[in-house]
Design brief:
The protein is an alpha+beta fold. About 30% of the residues lie in helices and about 25% in strands. It contains five helices and five strands; from the N terminus they run E-E-E-H-H-H-E-H-E-H. Strands 1-2-3 form a three-stranded antiparallel β-sheet, with no helix packed on it. Strands 4-5 form a two-stranded antiparallel ribbon. A hairpin with a 6-residue loop joins strand 1 and strand 2. Helix 2 packs antiparallel against helix 5. The radius of gyration is 21 Å and the shape is elongated. The N and C termini lie far apart (about 55 Å).
Protein backbone atom coordinates (compact mmCIF):
# COMPACT_ATOMS: atom_id res chain seq x y z
CA UNK A 1 0.00 0.00 0.00
CA UNK A 2 1.05 3.53 -0.66
CA UNK A 3 1.91 4.92 2.79
CA UNK A 4 0.48 8.35 1.91
CA UNK A 5 -2.82 7.36 0.26
CA UNK A 6 -3.41 3.80 1.43
CA UNK A 7 -4.07 2.74 -2.19
CA UNK A 8 -2.59 -0.53 -3.44
CA UNK A 9 0.50 0.01 -5.59
CA UNK A 10 1.30 -3.63 -6.20
CA UNK A 11 -0.35 -6.97 -5.87
CA UNK A 12 -0.82 -10.40 -7.29
CA UNK A 13 -2.88 -9.21 -10.25
CA UNK A 14 -3.48 -6.22 -12.45
CA UNK A 15 -6.46 -5.33 -14.65
CA UNK A 16 -6.10 -2.69 -17.36
CA UNK A 17 -8.75 -1.66 -19.88
CA UNK A 18 -8.02 0.73 -22.73
CA UNK A 19 -10.23 2.04 -25.48
CA UNK A 20 -9.34 4.66 -28.07
CA UNK A 21 -11.33 6.23 -30.87
CA UNK A 22 -9.11 7.98 -33.39
CA UNK A 23 -10.29 9.61 -36.59
CA UNK A 24 -8.88 11.99 -39.20
CA UNK A 25 -9.71 15.69 -38.98
CA UNK A 26 -10.70 17.34 -42.24
CA UNK A 27 -9.17 16.19 -45.48
CA UNK A 28 -5.76 15.31 -44.07
CA UNK A 29 -4.93 11.80 -42.93
CA UNK A 30 -1.97 13.27 -41.01
CA UNK A 31 -4.07 15.05 -38.39
CA UNK A 32 -6.07 12.85 -36.06
CA UNK A 33 -8.31 13.53 -33.12
CA UNK A 34 -8.36 10.93 -30.37
CA UNK A 35 -10.66 10.22 -27.47
CA UNK A 36 -9.59 7.60 -24.99
CA UNK A 37 -10.58 5.87 -21.79
CA UNK A 38 -8.21 4.02 -19.52
CA UNK A 39 -9.31 2.10 -16.45
CA UNK A 40 -7.47 -0.25 -14.18
CA UNK A 41 -6.58 -1.44 -10.72
CA UNK A 42 -4.30 -3.82 -8.90
CA UNK A 43 -5.49 -6.45 -6.48
CA UNK A 44 -4.08 -8.83 -3.94
CA UNK A 45 -7.09 -11.18 -4.02
CA UNK A 46 -9.67 -11.00 -6.80
CA UNK A 47 -11.02 -8.13 -8.87
CA UNK A 48 -14.15 -6.06 -8.72
CA UNK A 49 -15.23 -3.87 -11.59
CA UNK A 50 -16.48 -1.36 -9.03
CA UNK A 51 -12.87 -0.83 -7.95
CA UNK A 52 -11.64 0.31 -11.37
CA UNK A 53 -10.17 3.79 -11.56
CA UNK A 54 -11.10 5.42 -14.87
CA UNK A 55 -9.28 8.24 -16.64
CA UNK A 56 -10.51 10.03 -19.73
CA UNK A 57 -8.60 12.11 -22.21
CA UNK A 58 -8.48 13.58 -25.65
CA UNK A 59 -5.73 14.84 -27.84
CA UNK A 60 -4.79 16.16 -31.23
CA UNK A 61 -1.98 14.19 -32.82
CA UNK A 62 -0.12 15.07 -35.97
CA UNK A 63 3.06 14.11 -37.78
CA UNK A 64 3.52 17.61 -39.11
CA UNK A 65 1.53 20.40 -40.66
CA UNK A 66 2.89 21.49 -44.02
CA UNK A 67 1.56 24.54 -45.82
CA UNK A 68 2.34 25.52 -49.39
CA UNK A 69 1.93 29.26 -48.83
CA UNK A 70 1.97 30.14 -52.54
CA UNK A 71 -0.71 27.54 -53.32
CA UNK A 72 -2.79 28.70 -50.36
CA UNK A 73 -2.64 32.30 -51.55
CA UNK A 74 -3.49 31.20 -55.11
CA UNK A 75 -6.47 29.22 -53.81
CA UNK A 76 -7.61 32.31 -51.91
CA UNK A 77 -7.75 34.43 -55.05
CA UNK A 78 -4.22 35.82 -54.63
CA UNK A 79 -5.51 37.77 -51.61
CA UNK A 80 -2.44 38.33 -49.39
CA UNK A 81 -4.51 39.74 -46.52
CA UNK A 82 -6.86 36.75 -46.51
CA UNK A 83 -3.85 34.39 -46.69
CA UNK A 84 -2.37 36.08 -43.61
CA UNK A 85 -5.67 35.71 -41.75
CA UNK A 86 -5.90 32.02 -42.71
CA UNK A 87 -2.36 31.40 -41.48
CA UNK A 88 -3.09 33.26 -38.22
CA UNK A 89 -6.22 31.16 -37.71
CA UNK A 90 -4.27 27.95 -38.33
CA UNK A 91 -1.51 28.94 -35.88
CA UNK A 92 -4.04 29.86 -33.20
CA UNK A 93 -6.06 26.66 -33.72
CA UNK A 94 -2.99 24.41 -33.72
CA UNK A 95 -1.59 25.97 -30.55
CA UNK A 96 -4.62 26.91 -28.45
CA UNK A 97 -7.65 24.78 -29.30
CA UNK A 98 -8.05 21.84 -26.96
CA UNK A 99 -10.73 19.21 -26.44
CA UNK A 100 -13.49 20.13 -23.99
CA UNK A 101 -14.31 16.75 -22.44
CA UNK A 102 -13.74 16.32 -18.68
CA UNK A 103 -12.28 19.83 -18.31
CA UNK A 104 -13.16 20.18 -14.66
CA UNK A 105 -11.83 16.82 -13.55
CA UNK A 106 -8.83 16.50 -15.86
CA UNK A 107 -7.96 20.17 -16.55
CA UNK A 108 -7.90 19.57 -20.31
CA UNK A 109 -7.41 23.18 -21.27
CA UNK A 110 -3.95 22.56 -22.60
CA UNK A 111 -2.19 24.96 -24.90
CA UNK A 112 0.77 23.72 -26.92
CA UNK A 113 3.87 23.65 -24.74
CA UNK A 114 6.32 23.51 -27.63
CA UNK A 115 5.97 24.50 -31.27
CA UNK A 116 8.63 24.46 -33.97
CA UNK A 117 7.84 26.28 -37.21
CA UNK A 118 10.10 26.02 -40.25
CA UNK A 119 10.10 27.84 -43.59
CA UNK A 120 11.74 27.07 -46.89
CA UNK A 121 11.42 25.27 -50.19
CA UNK A 122 13.05 22.10 -48.88
CA UNK A 123 11.13 18.86 -48.79
CA UNK A 124 9.19 18.57 -45.53
CA UNK A 125 10.25 15.83 -43.14
CA UNK A 126 8.77 14.56 -39.93
CA UNK A 127 10.63 14.74 -36.63
CA UNK A 128 8.51 11.98 -35.09
CA UNK A 129 11.51 9.62 -35.17
CA UNK A 130 12.80 11.58 -32.18
CA UNK A 131 10.40 9.45 -30.13
CA UNK A 132 11.25 5.98 -31.42
CA UNK A 133 13.03 5.67 -28.09
CA UNK A 134 10.51 6.56 -25.36
CA UNK A 135 11.14 9.59 -23.18
CA UNK A 136 11.78 8.38 -19.63
CA UNK A 137 12.38 11.09 -17.05
CA UNK A 138 14.15 10.12 -13.84
CA UNK A 139 13.94 11.79 -10.45
CA UNK A 140 13.07 15.45 -11.03
CA UNK A 141 13.74 15.52 -14.80
CA UNK A 142 11.09 17.26 -16.89
CA UNK A 143 9.41 15.08 -19.51
CA UNK A 144 8.76 18.19 -21.60
CA UNK A 145 12.41 19.28 -21.47
CA UNK A 146 13.51 15.79 -22.55
CA UNK A 147 10.96 15.72 -25.38
CA UNK A 148 12.05 19.14 -26.66
CA UNK A 149 15.72 18.08 -26.46
CA UNK A 150 14.90 14.96 -28.51
CA UNK A 151 13.15 17.05 -31.20
CA UNK A 152 15.99 19.59 -31.34
CA UNK A 153 18.60 16.82 -31.60
CA UNK A 154 16.68 15.10 -34.42
CA UNK A 155 16.31 18.41 -36.25
CA UNK A 156 20.04 19.19 -35.83
CA UNK A 157 20.97 15.70 -37.02
CA UNK A 158 18.82 16.06 -40.16
CA UNK A 159 20.64 19.35 -40.90
CA UNK A 160 24.05 17.68 -40.37
CA UNK A 161 23.26 14.76 -42.65
CA UNK A 162 21.22 16.45 -45.40
CA UNK A 163 22.26 20.08 -45.13
CA UNK A 164 19.90 22.81 -43.95
CA UNK A 165 16.35 21.41 -44.00
CA UNK A 166 14.80 24.88 -43.58
CA UNK A 167 15.64 28.46 -44.46
CA UNK A 168 14.34 29.66 -41.12
CA UNK A 169 12.95 28.35 -37.84
CA UNK A 170 11.02 29.78 -34.95
CA UNK A 171 10.10 27.96 -31.75
CA UNK A 172 7.99 28.70 -28.71
CA UNK A 173 8.77 26.84 -25.53
CA UNK A 174 6.44 27.45 -22.60
CA UNK A 175 8.62 25.52 -20.13
CA UNK A 176 11.61 27.76 -20.89
CA UNK A 177 9.52 30.92 -21.37
CA UNK A 178 10.90 31.39 -24.88
CA UNK A 179 9.15 32.85 -27.91
CA UNK A 180 5.62 34.18 -28.26
CA UNK A 181 2.51 33.28 -30.18
CA UNK A 182 2.49 36.74 -31.79
CA UNK A 183 6.06 36.30 -33.05
CA UNK A 184 5.32 32.74 -34.21
CA UNK A 185 2.34 33.96 -36.24
CA UNK A 186 4.42 36.81 -37.70
CA UNK A 187 7.17 34.33 -38.66
CA UNK A 188 4.67 32.08 -40.45
CA UNK A 189 2.99 35.03 -42.22
CA UNK A 190 6.23 36.66 -43.44
Amino acid sequence: LDPLTGNPVGGLGQLLLNEELRFPVGYSQRINFSLFLDAGNVATNGFSLSGLRPSYGAGLFYLYVCIDRELLQSNLGADAELTGKALDALIHAATKVSPTGMQNSHASRAYASYVLAEKGDQQPRSLVQAFLKPIKPFDDQSMLDLAVAAIVKRCDNFDKVYGPCADGRYAINVEAGEGSLTELAAFVRA
